[in-house]
Amino acid sequence: MSIATINPATGETVKTFTPLTNAEIDAALSLADGAFKDYRQVSFEQRSKWMKNAANLLEENAETYAKIMTLEMGKPVTSAIAEVKKSASVCRFYAENAAQFLADVPAESDASNSFIAYEPLGAILAVMPWNFPFWQVFRFAAPALMAGNVGLLKHASNVPQCALAIGEIFQKAGFPEGVFQTLLVGSDKVAQIITDDRVKAGTLTGSEPAGASLASLAGQNIKKTVLELGGSDPFIVLETADLNAAVDAAVTARMLNNGQSCIAAKRFILISTIADEFESRMAEKFAALKIGDPMLPDTEVGPLATPGILKELHQQVQSCVQAGAKVLTGGQPLESLGNFYPPTILTQIPEGTPAYSEEFFGPVALIFRVNSLEEAITLANSTIFGLGASAWTTNRAEQERCIRELEAGAVFINGLVKSDPRLPFGGIKRSGYGRELSSQGIHEFVNIKTVWIK
Ligand code: NAP
């Protein structure tokens, strides 16, 4: 895959980039290794000042950065602006809380004094996806850098201008040279980087094969990894749900980022008593969404990021339809030079189709009907994924069962699944392991050092 900006709304190749040579990668790793030796000694106060500068730069230039994202991967510019601001918020969150999260913790033992200290590990490789090109990187970088680590970014090959802009932000914010570096490399160079002794750990957000590849290489070299992979999140609606709120949230949850979000609600599991009503309201709202040029502020659905994603999504839809699924709305790619796919709803989906086992990465809602909570939970859990789950009910007993029995890294009751710097984020099963955000996130890449003094 070449490293290039290709406008997904038009198919035009805007700019291509030359990947780093092996010698340049080697120099970058040496620079990171050297920078760590000094940076680990820098006070929290100083790191925090630089991190707040990064937040200011993001906020002051939100529109400029947002347009780069929209150009490279097609998200509506209004959501892109919100993403830049959210990236600033995670910088502020760790700037303000890192010292407290990583303060020594006293522990009772047979020593006269024993405690736990948290220390940085060194250079951490982050392999990142294109779908939230700023947010995904900042939610890695803010805790990693505040903990005293140094960051190496291998961003997705279709968002090189985002990758370079992020590198520049950390530099302009005042972080010393080598503390955060963008490496313009293809995925073929990830093995060389993660197995290098100067790199101490790795994190990957993306697909399962990519995650498995990074983690196995890291494992062979006894290095820790965090994986944030795919999801096929259930959105369960039960009899007592506020239907207006649930339908609105369902549309937002499925359409976020043109449907290309790991935590997008993908499977809508409806109790049969409310299913007709829910389906018709959802179909009406889907059909009314404004699809078009993502640079326009009122566009709600833009193009998919690449022609490959469009092709795969349509194949998944077609194989469900050929097996007997019904199309409530959408279902055919739009005629355009860009990668536009309309908001689509499938119902009456036969078992054994991709809807039951695969992630649909685009604006396609899959509707399933059930006759009991028991059935809803069984269906919700019947995938290889376990990222998020949303359940809608005002019945306390039903809420409790959903909270305890849904196999997911997060359960949201009467709300759509979202990320928040204050709450841990991550999955179970094949959605990955480890956590980002909150105090848990900053503890992933530190040496939890036991100190015992007599
Ligand atoms: P992808 O192909 O796995 O790409 C993600 C990153 O991994 C890119 O930087 C890519 O580089 C790199 N990569 C690809 N193959 C690799 C390999 N064999 N070894 C090492 N690195 C490799 O993922 P995608 O399809 O673009 O992204 C969508 C997926 O990400 C979805 O499944 C989505 O659910 C998941 N996602 C998860 C989360 C979460 O937090 N759980 C958040 C966002 C997205 P190149 O671009 O150079 O190929």
TrEMBL record:
<dbReference type="GO" id="GO:0004777">
    <property type="term" value="F:succinate-semialdehyde dehydrogenase (NAD+) activity"/>
</dbReference>
<dbReference type="GO" id="GO:0036243">
    <property type="term" value="F:succinate-semialdehyde dehydrogenase (NADP+) activity"/>
</dbReference>
<dbReference type="InterPro" id="IPR016162">
    <property type="entry name" value="Ald_DH_N"/>
</dbReference>
<protein>
    <submittedName>
        <fullName>Succinate-semialdehyde dehydrogenase (NADP(+))</fullName>
        <ecNumber>1.2.1.79</ecNumber>
    </submittedName>
</protein>
<dbReference type="Pfam" id="PF00171">
    <property type="entry name" value="Aldedh"/>
</dbReference>
<keyword id="KW-0560">Oxidoreductase</keyword>
<dbReference type="InterPro" id="IPR015590">
    <property type="entry name" value="Aldehyde_DH_dom"/>
</dbReference>
<dbReference type="InterPro" id="IPR016163">
    <property type="entry name" value="Ald_DH_C"/>
</dbReference>
<dbReference type="GO" id="GO:0004030">
    <property type="term" value="F:aldehyde dehydrogenase [NAD(P)+] activity"/>
</dbReference>
<dbReference type="InterPro" id="IPR047110">
    <property type="entry name" value="GABD/Sad-like"/>
</dbReference>
<feature type="domain" description="Aldehyde dehydrogenase">
    <location>
        <begin position="3"/>
        <end position="451"/>
    </location>
</feature>
<dbReference type="InterPro" id="IPR016161">
    <property type="entry name" value="Ald_DH/histidinol_DH"/>
</dbReference>
<comment type="similarity">
    <text>Belongs to the aldehyde dehydrogenase family.</text>
</comment>
<dbReference type="InterPro" id="IPR044148">
    <property type="entry name" value="ALDH_GabD1-like"/>
</dbReference>
<keyword id="KW-0521">NADP</keyword>
